[in-house]
Amino acid sequence: MQDERIEALQQMSIFGGLRDDTLRLILSVATVAHVRQGDYFFREGDAGDSLFVLQGGKAAVLKRLGEQECLLRHLNRGDCFGEMSLIDFSPRSASVRALEDCEALQISAACIAQVYEKDVEQFALIEMNMGREVSRRLRQTDAALDPGRLSAGSGLPK
User: Fold this and answer.
1) HEC per residue, the chain
2) pLDDT band at 108, cuts 50/70/90?
3) Phi and psi dihedrals of 65, rounded to 5?
4) Any idea where the domains of the chain sit in the sequence?
């Protein structure tokens, strides 16, 4: 069973390139969060000290704009979220609410610190992967907000 969990993690961009022993360490320290339909994993503005990997169920990433919560994206099995708080130690930038009963692997900052203590190169790889994932999502959000903002091929604003 653990080998299946390791293989599943290795397929995710945030854990790509990590060795089995590092993933075993993460799995041994991580906890499993159970969030019922309609409840929140966390809310925008909360202190953040962990990231989550959705293992079952569906969730929504929501951002408050004025008095409304706007949907940024849907999360499905295998998606990770909450990693920004492990990069910048700032409050949560959005809320994540369960659309169905959910189960998620919760990986704390303390867990990532244990990886650092064991192998700084594996730690650096996790940090780089998290940065790439955040950057990818920012590009997707930019495109969704204003798809015509850039002229084709130039990379410069119109």
Assistant:
1) CHHHHHHHHHCCHHHCCCCHHHHHHHHHHCEEEEECCCCEEECCCCCCCEEEEEEECCEEEEEEECCEEEEEEEECCCCEECCHHHHHCCCCCCEEEECCCEEEEEEEHHHHHHHHHHCHHHHHHHHHHHHHHHHHHHHHHHHHHCCCCECCCCCCEC
2) very high
3) -125, 105
4) 8-142
Greatest C-alpha distance within the chain:
52
Cβ atoms of 108 and 50 within 8 Å: the answer is yes
Q: What is the mean pLDDT of the chain?
A: 89
- The tokens for 65 are 């704009």
**Backbone phi, psi, residue 27, to 5°:** -65, -30
Could you say which architecture CATH assigns to the domain 8-142?
Sandwich (2.60)
Residue written as token pair 């610190």: 113
pTM for this model (two decimals): 0.83
The pLDDT tens digits of the residues spanning 81-102 come to 999 998 898 999 999 999 999 9
Distance CA 48, CA 44 (A): 10
